[in-house]
Amino acid sequence: MGQFILKRIGVMLITAACLTFIVFFLTNLFPNLEKLAKTQANNRMSDEQVITWLDNRGYSQNLFKKYGEWVGILPSLRVTADSGQTYTRCSRPDLPAADAPRFCGLLQGNMGFSTVFKEEVSTIIGKRLGLTAYLMLAVLMVMIPLALAVGVIAGMREGSRTDRTLSTFAIATTATPEYVSGVIFIVLFASSKVGLSPLFAEWGWIEGRTIVKGSSASAMDNITFANFVLPVMALALYGMGYIARMTRASMAEVMTAQYIRTARLKGVRFRTIVFKHALRNALIAPFTVIMLQIPWLLTGVVIVETLFNYKGFGWSLVQAADGNDIQLLLGVSVVAVIVVLVTQLISDIGYAFLNPRIRVS
Questions:
Q1: What is the largest CA-CA distance in the chain?
Q2: Of 231, 187, 235, 232, which is closest to residue 211 (Cα–Cα)?
Q3: Fewer CB within 10 A of the end CB, N or C, for the chain?
């Protein structure tokens, strides 16, 4: 198992290097750099002035050299500004270029400086990633138990009316994008003019004008049921259908296995058969699907966070793309790549432990 993990980590590092280089190449295309120059300097700059601005700041270097500096395996370029001041990637007002370290990249913990937020990229990502982590945790706590319950109940009664009803529900949730269900939830529960809120207010069932809030901006400071339930519902409803379908298929297959038939013929109680013998084997395949939901939640919250004005990791990605913030885009991409690769590694290890028929040599 140790050798297997080491090999997977080696493959992860190679994959991460390839993916980050592709993102670095795309973000450093000349149209993006030209837009960056005009945004930071002057929108009316001529082509010659744009090239001069890029040359003076090291953006016109060889792509592989720039990538090496960004990663931190090559020394940072020393640039002389128009004012005559020399600076590097690590130099700051309180740290002149002469005292700045030569190597300053990802390996040294430096992700660069955001041109939109005027702040260190690592600080921005740490703050926004924490907000998204709360949202992801709440979604997983709601989505996983509901999806497993729906899948297990449907798989226990394959072909029955219960199975058809729950399967239809699971398919419908998977076919409804989160931005569609989010808008529906806002209309139903967070509108003071249409939906259920005016009716409940008229009956005196609620104190305010709406059942819950349609914006989750206040949840960044204080999470409550009213300001957090809608984005959680929108994400959980969309993700649970796929897990439920996988669980249902796995459970239905296990229930037809020979050892389950033998247990039933011996007179073992149906509840004991399900929870003691069938459930563990049925959850092997859904475990992988559940682990893959984590990177989906990290990158898939872009629309939901924008829709509900929740300024988390996905919202930062939108702002970086809209403002052509190259350093922030690169930082967000690195975090997303790491999360995807780590969750896949955990999924493979967990699958080997859960399934005794798998032996890693």
A1: 88
A2: 187
A3: C
Q: Which two tokens stand for residue 300?
A: 């898939």
Please name which of 165, 168, 151 lies closest in space to residue 278, comparing C-alpha atoms. 151
Share above pLDDT 70 across residues of the chain, in percent, rounded to a whole number: 91
328 in Cβ contact with 336 (< 8 Å): no
CB atoms within 10 A of CB 128: 25
What is the distance, to the nearest Å, from the Cα of residue 207 to the centroid of all Cα atoms in its chain? 36
CA pair distance 208, 200, nearest whole angstrom: 10
Report which residue type is found at 301: V
Distance in angstroms (rounded) separating the CA atoms of residues 278 and 117: 52
Q: How many residues would you count in the chain?
A: 361
What tokens does 186 get? 């806002």
CA dist list (Å): 245 to 148, 149, 240: 9, 11, 9
Helix (H) or strand (E) holding 79: strand 79-80
Which tokens belong to 44?
A: 């009316």
Residue type, 202: E
Determine contact, residues 168/262, Cβ cutoff 8 Å: no
How many Å apart are CA 220 and CA 310, to the nearest integer? 7
Which residues have C-beta within 8 Å of that of residue 1, sequence separation ≥ 6? 349, 352, 360
Q: Which residues share a beta bridge with 95?
A: 92
Torsion angle of alpha carbons 334, 339, 345, 351, nearest 10°?
A: -160
- According to the model, what pLDDT value does residue 44 have? 80
Contacting residues for 169 by C-beta, under 8 A, at least 6 apart: 150, 241
Q: What are phi and psi for residue 216, nearest 5 degrees?
A: -105, 20
Tokens for 355, please give them: 């399934």
User: What number is the average pLDDT over the span 224-239?
Assistant: 91
The DSSP symbol for 147 reads: H
CA dihedral sign, ordered 324, 114, 132, 206: negative
CA distance 273 to 267: 10
The closest of 204, 186, 203 to 195, measured between CA atoms, is: 186
Q: Can you give the pTM of this predicted structure?
A: 0.83
pLDDT tens by residue, 134-181: 999 999 999 999 999 999 888 888 888 988 999 999 999 988 888 899
